[in-house]
Specification:
Layout lengths: L2 H13 L4 E6 L2 E8 L2 E8 L30 E5 L4 E4 L15 E2 L4 E7 L2 E6 L4 E6 L6 E2 L4 E7 L1
Antiparallel strand pairs: 1-2, 2-3, 4-11, 5-7, 5-10, 6-9, 7-8, 9-11
């Protein structure tokens, strides 16, 4: 599957106003799910077939758990990138960022823009709260599922 195939699938989802689409081919699983007016893109590897017999490999060392940003008992919402692209903190160069640490934000308020394939996608808050962390820098490339913001719920 190449980029043109993915673009064709995304156009198909838009044209037919599909809520969800899933496709699997050659060990690649692509799932497109529309939530409101926002389309969430996910490309996941298909589960590998288990060998019938053979030596058993030692499990890989588990990654250490991430250090908490806030003390325990504080509710945080983490806003993640719904697509691959370039993160922009403001609408244009030199403009005030949509959200800084310490800002109070409301549900559906724009937090940033991610540019993907020459399209500017507004990323909105899922909840009301105070921005407690911004994980990426302006102009930085982001991957699907990468943390963008942490919001302390109010």
């Amino acid at each position: 599957m190449n980029l043109d195939d993915i673009k064709d699938i995304l156009n198909l989802v838009r044209e037919h106003d599909l809520a969800e689409f899933e496709y699997e081919q050659d060990g690649l699983k692509l799932r497109v799910k529309k939530a409101g007016h926002e389309v969430v893109y996910a490309a996941l590897p298909a589960p590998a077939a288990q060998p019938a017999a053979g030596p058993v490999a030692a499990p890989a060392a588990a990654a250490p758990p991430p250090t908490p940003i806030e003390p325990e008992g504080v509710d945080l919402a983490v806003i993640k990138a719904p697509l691959v692209g370039t993160f922009y903190a403001a609408a244009e160069p030199g403009a005030r960022p949509f959200a800084n640490v310490g800002d109070v934000v409301r549900k559906d308020q724009v937090l940033c823009i991610i540019e993907a394939m020459k399209l500017m996608n507004e990323i909105k808050s899922d909840c009301d709260g105070e921005v407690s962390a911004v994980y990426v820098q302006n102009g930085q490339a982001v991957q699907f599922g990468e943390r963008l913001f942490a919001i302390r719920l109010t």
